[in-house]
Write a structure and sequence with these properties.
Blueprint lengths: L14 E4 L12 E3 L18 E8 L6 E8 L1
Antiparallel strand pairs: 1-3, 2-3, 3-4
Length: 74
């Protein structure tokens, strides 16, 4: 995304990164899950059978604004 423009301040050239998930049993990166969040019996999010995608983040070097994209399925 070297040539992409920040939607907040207009700076060209965003730095690629990711949103870390360091929770218990995590895979190390955050995931986007389709549909509204519903809580299960024990209070956690229901996610069985829903598509999941890795979140890719791009940061503006000038203002710090983040652009997030749901990338490939995981």
């Amino acid at each position: 995304m070297d040539n992409n423009t920040c939607t907040h301040c207009g700076t060209v050239g965003l730095a690629e990164g990711f949103i870390e998930d360091a929770g218990e049993h995590s895979r190390g990166f955050a995931r986007w899950i389709e549909g509204a969040m519903e809580r299960g019996f024990f209070g956690g999010a229901k996610r069985t059978g829903r598509p999941r995608r890795r979140i890719v983040a791009f940061r503006c070097p000038k203002c710090g604004h983040l652009e997030l994209f749901a990338a490939e399925e995981v």
